[in-house]
């Protein structure tokens, strides 16, 4: 019964069926399946399969996004049932805070990177778009991420990345958190110039860079 | 690759999903060209170097000058011949799912044929073509969804010339399950062996008439001439129920008038005279119409198959054939570039899309460069991609409740995105061209992957297909019989 439910959860994700994933999550709770197992051996397993398909060029981004959405909605059902202790134990690959910088409302690139990071096993906190320097700093203090990821699509807004890094430095946070940047006008050179730790040329590279940044040095 | 009905990947490009069409000629233009052609046939005439065919024409009421091999054909015979042509031509394939119905509702892409040089897949060097090139290009064509009909792309120059075309056919039939069309049969006796080979695959001549696995294209000799052996060979095929195709190919300014319309008249007169002979000899036989009018480049002294004149005349010939009510095969996706690259790509695109947009039944040209003389495996793969892009262009934009997408627009609202929506998944493959070769990755990804240009990527794809794709082999017994036929032909045809 439990094995069957875990497989059904996985199949719902790999079959891009959001509604089924939510229904199965409810059913799993009723059947007494450990919600952590339901996430790790059901939903996350499915998302990894779709992630592999995507990496192999066999799946489309929309399929990956729907799979991630199915996981997200099913997790919303499962998470309240996880005991506090287990929550602390369930540490993800790393925590990453992402957002599009102040004055810039371009969402899509940042959201794709967020999904890719989730699929790769990161815990992603997405601040959305037009995120002020203050909000980046305050949220960093609040959620204590391993990495901050900033996105910009315009040369006029990418300068805000520099401001965030400056204040992180001034507040003594810079040593505790890695910073990566991305978006069409940015480059490796830009990242170096503003003293960021990494740059992703596309969503796939962003994941690789993030993984490298959290490796113990 | 899935082939879903109503979706993008269908067997043959379905014209019912084609929203964008264009006409090169008006109905008045078509009638003017037809009238001018009848005038040429009646007053200038054509030369046909076959006593047998001239006799047939004479008996039907044509005026013959036997010394000149020339014939004047009255217009009523032309109109009558056009009416007699078979209207339901099906080009059958070893695997019936690949049968091509020339029903005016599908466009079929045919690999280009009879090149004499090949860019070697291993060395990249240009060299005379070999039988193995046919084997490889047939396998790749078999795997590519955008190639619907296989034409042996080069000649097997590593076998004796008198049985070369039989080897070409054997290598083709053995390595693709798609229909095989070919050119160059120049003697009725050779045709008989080719018919016998195809009959072996389907279980006899009677069955071949029902399921013609092969078809044969015959070129006229501009201006206004027809080789006797070539025409008599065509009649052999017609007698056996094998569809035949007549193609005129005057070069504008050299073997035809410099004007596009004038060369169309010359080409049309040649082709219609062959159709008259065919329908007088075997009424109701299957004939596919073909014409082309490439410019003769007055500086390079070369035929310019990749030029806009060729593209326009080919699309126009497609229209003319529809006006006659018979299917067409035209050139398209042609280039005079020496090797795959920028010129090849733009010429292939500009010479290919008019034929698709005007709805020609069969379009030949993909895979060869240097004006249809040189096989480049990379080009075959690139051209298949170009053809798919052109199909997508021709489909245009579908507008209905589902595609207007009001529900999902309302759901996502300002600032959201459509990536994780079911509507996106449901319509992605129907609405978007999905590249199978084009590189759309980021600069960084491209760089990391070796900064390959499209030709290199195409070569890798060709090699990968050869590694993994294996068309269903012919039965051992059939293979042996084909060998036997070629051995018999070897001694029989040696004298020609």
How would you portray this structure in words?
The complex is a heterodimer of chains A (217) and B (496). Chain A has helices spanning 2-14, 18-30, 35-55, 61-78, 84-89, 108-120, 133-143, 159-170, 188-193, 203-214; strands at residues 95-100, 123-126, 147-151, 178-182, 198-200. With 217 residues, chain A is α/β, with parallel strands linked by helices. Chain A has a five-stranded parallel β-sheet with strand order 2-1-3-4-5, with helices on both faces. In chain A, strand 3, helix 8 and strand 4 (178-182) form a beta-alpha-beta unit. In chain A, helix 3 (35-55) packs antiparallel against helix 4. The longest helix of chain A has 21 residues, at 35-55. In chain A, 44% of the residues are buried. The model of chain A has no long low-confidence stretch (mean pLDDT 91). With 496 residues, chain B is an alpha/beta fold. Chain B has helices at residues 27-44, 51-59, 75-84, 131-143, 164-175, 188-202, 205-210, 228-240, 260-281, 308-324, 342-357, 377-395, 401-404, 406-412, 422-431, 443-448, 454-468, 476-492; strands at residues 13-14, 46-48, 63-65, 70-72, 90-91, 100-101, 106-111, 117-119, 126-128, 149-150, 179-182, 214-219, 225-226, 244-248, 251-252, 287-291, 294-297, 302-304, 329-331, 362-366, 368-369, 374-376. In chain B, the strands form six sheets. In chain B, strands 10-11-12-14-16 form a five-stranded parallel β-sheet. A four-stranded mixed β-sheet of chain B has the order 1-7-20-19. In chain B, strand 8 (117-119) and strand 9 form a beta hairpin. The chains are: A alpha/beta (217), B alpha/beta (496). Chain A binds chain B through residues 16, 18, 60-63, 65-66, 68-69, 105, 107-108, 111-112, 129, 201-202, 204-205, and chain B through 415-417, 419-422, 424-425, 428, 441-445.
């Amino acid at each position: 019964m439990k094995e069957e439910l875990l497989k059904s959860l996985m199949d719902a994700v790999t079959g891009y069926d959001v509604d089924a994933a939510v229904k199965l999550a409810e059913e799993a709770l009723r059947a007494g399946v450990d919600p952590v197992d339901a996430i790790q051996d059901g939903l996350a397993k499915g998302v990894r399969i779709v992630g592999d398909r995507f990496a192999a060029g066999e799946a489309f981004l929309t399929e990956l996004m729907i799979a991630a959405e199915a996981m997200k909605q099913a997790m919303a059902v499962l998470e309240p049932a996880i005991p506090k202790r287990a929550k602390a134990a369930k540490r993800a690959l790393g925590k990453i805070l992402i957002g599009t910088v102040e004055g810039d409302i371009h969402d899509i690139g940042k959201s794709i990177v967020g999904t890719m990071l989730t699929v790769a096993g990161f815990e992603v906190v997405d601040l959305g778009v037009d995120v002020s320097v203050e909000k980046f700093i305050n949220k960093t203090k609040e959620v204590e991420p391993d990495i901050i990821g900033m996105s910009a699509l315009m040369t006029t807004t990418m300068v805000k990345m520099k401001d965030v890094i400056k204040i992180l430095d001034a507040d003594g946070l810079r040593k505790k958190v890695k910073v990566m940047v991305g978006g069409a006008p940015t480059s490796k050179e830009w990242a170096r110039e503003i003293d960021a730790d990494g740059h992703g040329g596309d969503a796939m590279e962003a994941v690789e860079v993030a993984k490298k940044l959290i490796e113990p040095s | 690759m899935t082939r879903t009905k109503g979706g993008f990947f269908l067997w043959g490009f379905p014209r019912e999903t084609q929203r964008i069409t264009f006409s090169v000629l008006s109905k008045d233009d078509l009638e003017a060209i037809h009238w001018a052609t009848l005038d040429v046939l009646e007053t200038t005439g054509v030369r046909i170097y076959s006593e047998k065919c001239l006799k047939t024409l004479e008996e039907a009421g044509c005026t013959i000058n036997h010394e000149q091999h020339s014939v004047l054909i009255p217009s009523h015979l032309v109109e009558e011949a056009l009416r007699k042509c078979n209207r339901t031509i099906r080009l059958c394939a070893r695997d019936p799912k690949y049968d091509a119905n020339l029903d005016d509702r599908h466009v079929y892409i045919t690999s280009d044929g009879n090149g004499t040089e090949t860019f070697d897949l291993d060395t990249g060097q240009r060299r005379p073509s070999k039988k193995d090139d046919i084997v490889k290009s047939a396998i790749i064509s078999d795997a590519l969804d955008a190639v619907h009909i296989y034409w042996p792309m080069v000649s097997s120059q590593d076998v004796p010339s008198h049985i070369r075309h039989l080897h070409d056919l054997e290598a083709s039939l053995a390595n693709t399950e798609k229909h095989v069309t070919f050119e160059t049969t120049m003697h009725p006796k050779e045709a008989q062996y080719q018919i016998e080979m195809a009959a072996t695959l389907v279980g006899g001549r009677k069955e071949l008439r029902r399921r013609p696995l092969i078809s044969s294209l015959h070129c006229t000799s501009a201006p206004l001439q027809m080789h006797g052996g070539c025409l008599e060979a065509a009649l052999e095929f017609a007698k056996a129920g094998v569809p035949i195709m007549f193609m005129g190919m005057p070069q504008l300014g050299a073997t035809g008038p410099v004007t596009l319309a004038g060369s169309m008249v010359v080409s049309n007169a040649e082709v219609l005279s062959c159709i008259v002979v065919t329908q007088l000899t075997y009424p109701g036989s299957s004939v596919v119409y073909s014409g082309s009018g490439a410019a003769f480049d007055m500086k390079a002294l070369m035929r310019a198959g990749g030029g806009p004149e060729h593209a326009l005349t080919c699309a126009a010939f497609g229209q003319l054939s529809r006006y006659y009510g018979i299917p067409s095969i035209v050139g398209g996706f042609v280039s005079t570039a020496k090797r795959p690259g920028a010129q090849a790509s733009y010429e292939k695109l500009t010479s290919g899309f008019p034929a698709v947009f005007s709805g020609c039944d069969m379009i030949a040209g993909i895979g060869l460069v240097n004006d249809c003389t040189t096989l480049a495996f990379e080009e075959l793969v690139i051209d298949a991609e170009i053809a798919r892009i052109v199909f997508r262009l021709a489909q245009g934009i579908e507008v209905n409740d589902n595609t207007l997408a009001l529900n999902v627009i309302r759901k996502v609202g300002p600032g959201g995105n459509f990536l994780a929506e079911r509507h996106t998944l449901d319509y992605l493959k129907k609405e978007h061209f999905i590249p199978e070769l084009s590189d759309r990755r980021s600069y960084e990804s491209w760089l990391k992957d070796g900064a390959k240009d499209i030709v290199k990527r195409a070569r890798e794809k060709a090699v990968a297909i050869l590694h993994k794709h294996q068309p269903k082999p012919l039965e051992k017994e059939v293979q042996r019989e084909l060998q036997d036929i070629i051995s018999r032909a070897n001694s029989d045809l040696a004298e020609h």
